[in-house]
Amino acid sequence: MIEGFHHVAVICSDYARSRAFYTDTLGLEVIAETWRAERQSWKLDLAIPGGGQLELFSFPEPPSRPTRPEARGLRHLAFSVGDVTAAKARLEAGGVAVEPIRTDALTGKRFTFFADPDGLPLELYEA
To answer: InterPro entries, per this entry (predicted)?
Structure first.
């Protein structure tokens, strides 16, 4: 039935700040950017290298996330990287706070967490 992964949708509180974070800081490529006047909302389609997309939405006064990260629903979004140490250093050089690198006890792979401008937990997972 399922043939692959298509996208993840994220609602932000400050569109310009989140757009800059996902494009400039994380380096995701813009596929399309649409202003939806009837909703007073931006929709930004971003390409995830290797397939899939991230959809960034803005809405007037969206409610905040209840807790981090154990609220019901999406726990976090993980991005695959070749070198977690280098990716962590690049984020920190851009002013992003990144947790210490840990090792997944089940896979032996290294990973770390950081947050987007709205506090959405994001993970770097070493491929």
So the answer is: Fosfomycin_Res_Enzymes, Glyas_Bleomycin-R_OHBP_Dase, Glyas_Fos-R_dOase_dom, VOC_core, YwkD-like_dom
8-62 confidence digits (pLDDT tens): 999 999 999 999 999 999 999 999 999 999 989 999 999 999 889 999 999 888 8
67 in a structural domain:
no
The CATH number linked to 6 is 3.10.180.10
**Which of 67, 75, 65, 79 lies closest to 28, judged by CA?**
79
Q: Mark residue 24 as left, alpha or beta (left: phi above 0; alpha: psi -120 to 50; beta: remaining).
A: alpha
**pLDDT at residue number 2:** 54
Owner of token pair 């400039």? 24
Burial of 112 (0-12, 13-18, 19+ CB in 10 A): buried
- First vs last C-alpha separation in the chain: 26
The verdict on residue 68 lying in a domain is no
Q: Are 28 and 54 in contact (CB under 8 A)?
A: yes
